[in-house]
Structures are given as structure tokens and as C-alpha cells.
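User: Hand in any protein.

Assistant:
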Amino acid sequence: MLKVISFGEALVDMLSSQVSENPSSGVEQFAKYPGGAPANVAAAVGKLGGNSYMAGKIGTDMFGIFMRQSLHEAGVNTDYLLNTNAANTALAFVSLDAEGERSFTFYRNPSADMLFTADEFEDDWFADAGIFHFCSNTLTAIGIREATLAGIRKAKAAGFLISFDVNLRCNLWPAGSDPTAPIWQALALADMVKLSLDEMNFLAASTSQDEVLQRLLDSGVSLVLLTDGGNPLRYFSQQSSGTVTPPKVSMVDSTAAGDAFIGGFIYQLAAMDCKHSELNTLLNTPDRLEKALRFASHCGAYAVSHKGAFTSLPGINDLPL
């Protein structure tokens, strides 16, 4: 089983309960759940039984302690998760609508995860090839962006497969800034990219989806995964393209849906010993690829039918496979 390093924000989701019966009162209760997209992926891999590591930085506050313990309980090695007294652990307040769709308000400027520096990546983290996963929330400010790119390059040099889930949150970017150029800089370093349909439309705002896909493949991305909620997943590579239809479920909370999906897929890659040098072999065998994507789709479907982030992620025995 390959090592999987998820890098980025480990934060606390303050998840809304139902709004008070008297809407005019504005009373809304929030309960804390472990979260953050890369941390969710680390937990997804860990709960499935993978060799999962979380890299990043948390505060020494009560929320940081809660995050480290939650990751540990999910089967994640936290040796690469550093502490700082310089800022608190980030918070994200999450409200849900009647269909379970979420909206976010972040408290993160700055937060502990943004203080990770390039020189804090240790060489021995990358001693054996594995999978390095990250998202765009560590591209939002120059310091953490430089650290992220340094980690990607160190992982690539060690033979890691690089996985990038764009996971765009525009409200985390400074007012007036355009995320496009930093995201494309990171996309050009990735072997595997996951995009939601909304993120694809963002990248294709001044062009077309076909041109975005071609640019990704021309830049060296080997596999593009395009998700669209409960609609069929589409995948694209130089070798082939296709669709996989996820199982139908009743949605309760979409908070960790994409993270459960990509975590399930990364777990499958790790179980197949699919580091960078082996990815093209997998892509040349579409039956194996689609089997892994169906597994990942079941992980995503399980997550949306349960509340929370870590709490919604399946173990291997929760899946009908």
C-alpha cells in the first residue's frame, strides 16, 4: 500500500443544525466537526485502511487539538501535521439548504494552515514514492502558495504521483484577485486533476470545456476527472475517455462528497501501487480504471447520505462492493 500525503488545511467545520422554527429570530445552532478538504481526503484514505498522512499546520488551540485527535481516530498519521502558536486553527461555518447543499463562511486570515513554509517539508517524508494530494485553498496567498509549489516539486522529484482537486472557494481569495493564474500554475504540475462542473465552467469562462481539457492534457496532466453531483462522472486521458454513473442516494449533506470520492479513488490507486511511473499502465486498462472510479463513486454516495465531513466518510465495510 503506497503512502498518501494530503497537504493543506485541517480546519473545523461548524455545521448548522436546522434553523429555529421562528425564522425571524435568526437563531441557528452550530456543532463542530473535523474538516478541511485535504484533511477530509486524508481521513477518507485512513478510514478505508490506507497508509494516510496529513501534512500542514494547526494551532495549539482547542480546535487544533480536536483536529489532531480526529485525524488520529480516522487512521491518519499526523507526524507531518505541525503546531504553531502564531495563529489559531481555521474555522468554516457551514449552512445547509433544504436539499443538503452547503454554503461556507471562513475564518482564516491568517490561520495556522497558512503559516506552513516551504522549508518545513522534510526530505524523509518523500523517501519512498507515493501519492501527494493538494487543493487550491493553499494557493490563495503568496507564502502558502510558494510552500505548496515547493512541496509538489519535492514530491515529483521523489517519484510521487501528484493529485490536485481544485476545490475552488472564491471567498477565500483576496478581494479583487483572480485565482486563474495560480490554479493553472498548479494544474501544470499535476498528474491527476479532479474538477467539479462548476470549476470546469470557471476555467472555461473565456474559452470552452474542450479547450480546457486539451490544455490540461497538453500540459502533462495524465487523467482528468470531471464530477457533476449525482450525474455521471466523466474521465479523460490521452488514451481514452468515458463515463461512470454513481449510485442513486438521498442527499443529506454534500459537505464531504467530493473529498470522499477523490479519497476513495486515491485509496484504490495506493492499493494498486500506482505511483507516477505506473499511472499510464492503469490508463491503458480502462476496465481497471473504471472499477476504481466506481469504488470512488460509492464512497461519494455514502458521504452525501450522512451528515458532516469525517463522520460521513465510509470504512471499507460500509461499501457494497
Summary: Residues 19-24 have pLDDT under 50 and may be disordered.
